Amino acid sequence: MPNAPVLHSEWLKIRTLRSLPAALLALFVVTTAFSALAGADAGDGPDSDPLFTALSGVLPGQIAAVSFGALAMAAEYHGGALRLSLAAVPQRGRWFAAKLTAVGVPVLLTGLVTAAAALAAARADGLTGSEQARAIAGCGLYLMLMALFAAGLTAVFRSGAATLSVLIPFILVVSFVVGDAVGTVADFLPDKAGQTVLHRTYDGSLGPWSGLAVTALWTAAALLAGAWSVRRRDT
Questions:
Q1: Contact call for residues 218 and 190 (beta carbons, < 8 A)
Q2: Gap between the terminal Cα atoms of the chain
Q3: Does residue 130 contact residue 55 with C-beta atoms inside 8 Å?
Q4: d(C-alpha 169, C-alpha 188), whole Å
Q5: Amino acid 120: pLDDT
Q6: CA 138 to CA 133: how far, in whole Å?
Q7: What are the backbone angles phi and psi of residue 132, rounded to the nearest 5°?
Q8: What angle do CA 118, 190, 180 make, to 5 degrees?
Q9: What CA–CA distance (Å, rounded) separates 117 from 36?
């Protein structure tokens, strides 16, 4: 089967599951709203980071991106949907790649628009055009990687609830606790590493793009494990 019909089929699944467009809308609304609030309360002290303040809404907003990736993959494990998908596309690698494309591209595009809206809503002053462009591109990539990370884990667990029960507490609690306890080791956690791109200045061992590279490695590992699960275990 050619690739285009497979991609079209997966995109139709995304469109017809109401929870998935709602997750993308939540990503935009939550991120922009929190960034606007942060921008209104921002200080101008020597230690302030206007870029991170303007994009601080990404921290709660990323939960919607993670949920999108987990729910999109989890839909295949309900009601025998995966059997139908693999019957239509027997080449499991091709189907899995199409599914990941259908997950990653909408989150990337939504992330780019959301980052631009958040910067505008926060009314960040003093940022150069290159800093804003880097932040917008980096934010879109970060959110896409986190959504794909969730999709890969869901393929391993074969449960969106299991994935979200692990990732949401990890993002909201564990990263901060571990960061306080072990210092720079936390810089290499999947969320902490990628969030470096949201900062104007950074004092850790990772920069914006090397941080995203670390997140990409975590995501690649989750996707490889997910691909193995689809190829070896799922029927």
A1: yes
A2: 19
A3: no
A4: 17
A5: 92
A6: 8
A7: -70, -40
A8: 90
A9: 9
Tokens (6 digits) for 202: 């950074």
Tell me how far apart the alpha carbons of residues 117 and 14 are, in angstroms, rounded to a whole number. Answer: 24
Helix, strand, coil in percent for the chain, rounding step 5: 80, 0, 20
pTM reported for the whole predicted model? 0.93
Q: Which two tokens stand for residue 35?
A: 């960034």
Written as six digits, the tokens of 108 are 């990337």
Average confidence (pLDDT) over 53-66: 94
Picking from 65, 56, 72, the residue whose alpha carbon sits closest to that of residue 28 is 65
Would you call 220 exposed, middle or buried from its count of C-beta atoms within 10 A (0-12, 13-18, 19+)? middle
DSSP state, 173?
I
Encoding tokens for residue 169?
């507490």
Integer Cα distance of 166 and 153 in angstroms: 10
123: amino acid identity, one letter: R
In tens, the pLDDT along 158-201 reads 999 999 999 999 888 877 676 656 567 778 889 999 999 999 88
Q: Which residues contact 71 (CB under 8 A, 6 or more apart)?
A: 17, 19, 20, 23, 160
Residues 80-102 as b or e (16 or more Cβ within 10 Å = b): eebeebbeebeebeebbbbbbbb
Give the Cα-Cα-Cα angle 13, 64, 103 (nearest 5 degrees). 35
- Closest by CA position to 187, among listed 203, 201, 172: 203
Q: What is the CB neighbour count within 10 angstroms for residue 111? A: 30
